[in-house]
């Protein structure tokens, strides 16, 4: 019997993912400007906004296979708007997702098909169930890296176009250390 090294899983639980089966996606400001209410600011185009690490060793065509990921967001403000991920619906609205707070603090903003939004606070150890019918996006509201682990069905898919055509209806800003939400 061969005994496998669980390094990818151990590192994942420590807030780091690396290895042959890990796909790393990096989002810099020039590629994220359109996520914000006003993307014109002094931030460098190559400023790191967030990284996503995905454990991609499962066959995505097999129903029931799970993907694991980690999002690492920087504590960046764009004209006082808190750093956000792109956000998405799932292509298969029957596929839910789980988020777990690993480091830092922030929000998980959720939007239903009627454009109604609500948010949940995310902190170390918090667990969040995301119904497959809800769009979701992470927001770093803290002063340090915000790390969130996630797990979803490999067949879920990501529908980014739907969010681009129908953006989240709320924005989150940080002014003098206080968080405020604004309807967009």
Commentary on this structure:
The structure is a single chain. The strands form three sheets. This protein has a six-stranded antiparallel sheet. It has three helices and 13 strands. 9% of the residues lie in helices and 42% in strands. The protein is mainly beta and 184 residues long. It has helices at residues 7-13, 29-32, 161-165, and strands spanning 22-28, 48-55, 66-73, 77-78, 81-84, 97-103, 106-111, 117-122, 127-130, 135-140, 146-153, 170-175, 178-183. A hairpin with a 2-residue loop joins strand 4 (77-78) and strand 5 (81-84). The model has no long low-confidence stretch (mean pLDDT 88). The protein has one domain: Jelly Rolls. The protein is globular, with a radius of gyration of 16 Å.
